[in-house]
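Continuing the series of single-chain predictions for the mutant panel. This is the parent chain; the variants come on the following pages.
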Amino acid sequence: MEWKNLYRGFIMGISDLIPGVSGGTIAVILGIYDRLLDAISGFFSRRWKEQLSFLIPLAVGMGTALLLLSRLIEYLLENYHEPTQFFFIGLIIGVIPLMLKQAQPKKNFGSKHYITLAIAAILIASMAFFNPEKTTEPITSLSVLSVIGLFFSGWLASMAMLLPGISGSFILLLLGVYSTAINALSTLNIPVILVIGLGAVVGFIGSSKGIKYSLSHFPHITYAIIIGLIIGSLFVVFPGMVTGATTIILCLVTFVLGLSVTMLFGSEKKLTKGKWNK
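Parent structure:
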């Protein structure tokens, strides 16, 4: 078992609790994005035992974060919204140089790549103008229709989670399911957690194969899309202009902290043959 993935999964689990922050971006920061795609897409291959040794500790770490910190994240977003968001802005900005080093745009990008990058950034940035209802009454008991709806919500959210720049939690917000997911985690509503989780597993498997295929066969255009998604996500996470001396100082501190975390992890991950080491 790759037990160091426990802390990696824990960090990814924290990010998946926050609308606007992509678990895929955190996977890039931690240097495991390519390995994650390989493990999920290869889960049903002959090498499934090898994939489990990677995925189980990661899943345990993510599950632990989701269960233990759902209420804390709610508290931070409610009481320290701007500093929390600026921490993740720092993380996201820090990952852009890593992606540029991987993509080598001066060498590999032409006009179509930059146009694609801009379109991807604009599409994600436009989500900042959506104001989904965060106080939707959570679903606590299941019916046939709610099972179907929650399953496909988990499916769509997990597909978003694997793409750097797109937040699975924000997709749940757009679908009106975020409050249900957070409530289920904080109250340990096992049936609701299982339905959303099963949809997420199915979405992970399908989307990982698609992303892996795109990176293998169309790497330059895929990197252009991913970089655009990451840049666009900054507009979604940005909480607006900050006022008040104390809040401004806190936001600066958390921004620098987030940027430092990315630089710390990035400096430890050397790029070889177009992939991040484990």
